[in-house]
Every structure is written in structure tokens, then in C-alpha cells.
């Protein structure tokens, strides 16, 4: 039996595929053997204890920080995700599209100027003069599926683009950061490690913008806040913040408070959240499970 944590806008094709294997329950119970999840909830120990006979968790995501993997490992629960179907997701670009939107919005101060016009009711443009994108250098940190797509976008806009990936030992990230006006963090961080550490942020030159469509823990948030306050960082856009799974925590996040004053854009994990991307990834995972695991329930 299957249980879905979120069914809103879920692909009917995917649901029909799962129904060919077993029924779908509306209630948590010991009969559930497969949990189908998205990103809206933290799938932690206390929640998982509701499913005594759980065998699989299916997540149509690449990041897995929303799932208590230690609990799953200790209780023989297999996690299946888009990482198991990488060949199938090569043409899904919604996160890259969002990244470009955040980049343009940050540099051209779209969000900042909109808030000013609406709140102050003044059509004042001198406060928001910016730069041509083709005069700037972008560093793409993480040159995988998304990094390659983002790199195509920035080059198409005439920006000088430097690509960095940890797998390429010939590249010096410190030198790349020192040359760049815009830093895009799109590298995957499964183990919670920081990609843009406090130490590396010291190598970021003044008047730089940072766009983060990886995870909040991929950067040192406290150091970024310091740089925004000292104006050595001109803006920060992120699709993920600390505490995003807990309203009581994320409401206290400093970026939310500071966004009233500084050039900060926060989106609620919208990277892969389009109708097309959701449905396609849901169908990919449903077909993958049907082909490989339907006889294991």
C-alpha cells in the first residue's frame, strides 16, 4: 500500500502507475509499505514511526536532506530518488530557469525597486541604477546537469562565464571567486557540507552578487549576512533558507528580516516546482519503481 505526503498537482499518470502495483491509502497506518514524498515536509524519525512496515521512500528530488537517512538505514527502508534515474532527467531545466531569473532580478534590482515603489509610492530610479549583464563575470559553482544549463544561459546573455566543479582538480576556486562579479551555487551537497565556506567567502571580491539554488547549508549564511551589512556583497538570492521545513524556525531567519532593507530575494524552494517538471519527475519515478521494485512489496 502507498501513502502520499502531498498529492496536490500530482501527475495522474504516475498515480495510475502506482495503483497498478497496490492501493493508495489516505491514512497513515502499519499497512503502508511505500511512502511517496515531495519537499514540503521533513520526513523525520517521529513521522516515519507511523509506518511500522515501511519498505520504500520515493522522492522525486535529487537532494535528500528532507529525509532522515540514518533512520531509514537502521530500519531497512530503501530511499529511491531522481539520483537513480539521472539519464531520464537531463532535459529538465526548471531550476536553471529559476536561477537565471534570480540572477537578473538581483543584478537589475527588480525585487528591491518593486518593494520601494509599492511601499514608498515614489517612482525613483536613481536609487536602483545597475549594470549591463554582459559587463559582468559569472562563476558557476557546480558544473553538472544544472550548472551546464546555467552556463549556457549566462553565455547567451554575453556574460563571461567561469565554470567550477570539485571533480576538476586543476581548477582553483579561490582564484575563480576573486575574478567573478556573480557567484552561482548550484552544486549538490548530499552530506550537508558547505560549498561556500566562511573562509572562501573572504576570497569573494567586493561588489559581488551570490545566487544560491543549491541548499541553505551550501553557504555560510552568517558570513553572507555580515557581507551584506558591510555592503561588500551587493545582493543575495536564494531558493532555500535555514529552517525552511519548520515555520517557527524560518520565520526567525535573518534573511527574511533583512530583505526589507537589503538586496535579498528569497523563494520557497521553487527550483523544480513547475507543473511540467513535477509531473515529469513523478512519472519517471513511478515508472522506475514499477519496472524495478513492484514485485518486492
Low-confidence stretches: none
Strand content is: 15-25%
From the spread of the alpha carbons, the general shape counts as elongated
Major sheet: arrangement of strands: 7-6-8-9-10-11
At a glance:
The chain has helices at residues 12-19, 45-48, 69-74, 94-107, 110-120, 145-156, 173-179, 198-201, 221-229, 247-250, 254-258, 275-293; strands spanning 2-4, 24-25, 34-37, 56-59, 78-81, 137-141, 160-164, 182-185, 208-212, 233-238, 264-266. It is an alpha/beta fold.
What does this structure look like?
This protein has 297 residues and is of the alpha/beta class. It has 12 helices and 11 strands. The longest helix has 19 residues, at 275-293. The chain is elongated, with a radius of gyration of 21 Å. The termini are close together. 36% of the residues are buried. The mean pLDDT is 94.
What's the helix and strand layout?
Elements: E1 2-4, H1 12-19, E2 24-25, E3 34-37, H2 45-48, E4 56-59, H3 69-74, E5 78-81, H4 94-107, H5 110-120, E6 137-141, H6 145-156, E7 160-164, H7 173-179, E8 182-185, H8 198-201, E9 208-212, H9 221-229, E10 233-238, H10 247-250, H11 254-258, E11 264-266, H12 275-293
Parallel strand pairs: 1-2, 1-3, 3-4, 4-5, 6-7, 6-8, 8-9, 9-10, 10-11
Amino acid at each position: 500500500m502507498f501513502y502520499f505526503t502531498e498529492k496536490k498537482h500530482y501527475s495522474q499518470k504516475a498515480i495510475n502507475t502506482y495503483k497498478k502495483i497496490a492501493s493508495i491509502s489516505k491514512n497513515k497506518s502499519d499497512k503502508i509499505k511505500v511512502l511517496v514524498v515531495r519537499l514540503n515536509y521533513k520526513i523525520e524519525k517521529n513521522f516515519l514511526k507511523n509506518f511500522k512496515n515501511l519498505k520504500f521512500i520515493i522522492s522525486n528530488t535529487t537532494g535528500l536532506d528532507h529525509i532522515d537517512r540514518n533512520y531509514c538505514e537502521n530500519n531497512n527502508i530503501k530511499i529511491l530518488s531522481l539520483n537513480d534515474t539521472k539519464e531520464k532527467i537531463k532535459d529538465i531545466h526548471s531550476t536553471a530557469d529559476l536561477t537565471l531569473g534570480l540572477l537578473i532580478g538581483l543584478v537589475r534590482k527588480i525585487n528591491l525597486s518593486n518593494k520601494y515603489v509599492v511601499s514608498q509610492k515614489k517612482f525613483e530610479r536613481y536609487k536602483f541604477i545597475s549594470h549591463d549583464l554582459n559587463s559582468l563575470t559569472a562563476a558557476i559553482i557546480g558544473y553538472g546537469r544544472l550548472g551546464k544549463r546555467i552556463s549556457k544561459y549566462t553565455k547567451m546573455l554575453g556574460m563571461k562565464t567561469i565554470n567550477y566543479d570539485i571533480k576538476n582538480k586543476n581548477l582553483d576556486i579561490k582564484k575563480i571567486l576573486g575574478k567573478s562579479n556573480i557567484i552561482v551555487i548550484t552544486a549538490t551537497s548530499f552530506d550537508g557540507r558547505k560549498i561556500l565556506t566562511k573562509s572562501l567567502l573572504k576570497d569573494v571580491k567586493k561588489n559581488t552578487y551570490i545566487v544560491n539554488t543549491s541548499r541553505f547549508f551550501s553557504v555560510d549564511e552568517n558570513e553572507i549576512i555580515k557581507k551584506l551589512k558591510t555592503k561588500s556583497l551587493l545582493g543575495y538570492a536564494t531558493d532555500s533558507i535555514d529552517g525552511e521545513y519548520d515555520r517557527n524556525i524560518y520565520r526567525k531567519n535573518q534573511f527574511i528580516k533583512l530583505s526589507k532593507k537589503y538586496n535579498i530575494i528569497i523563494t520557497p524552494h521553487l527550483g523544480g516546482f513547475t507543473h511540467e517538471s513535477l509531473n515529469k519527475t513523478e512519472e519517471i519515478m513511478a515508472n522506475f519503481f514499477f519496472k524495478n521494485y513492484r514485485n518486492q512489496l
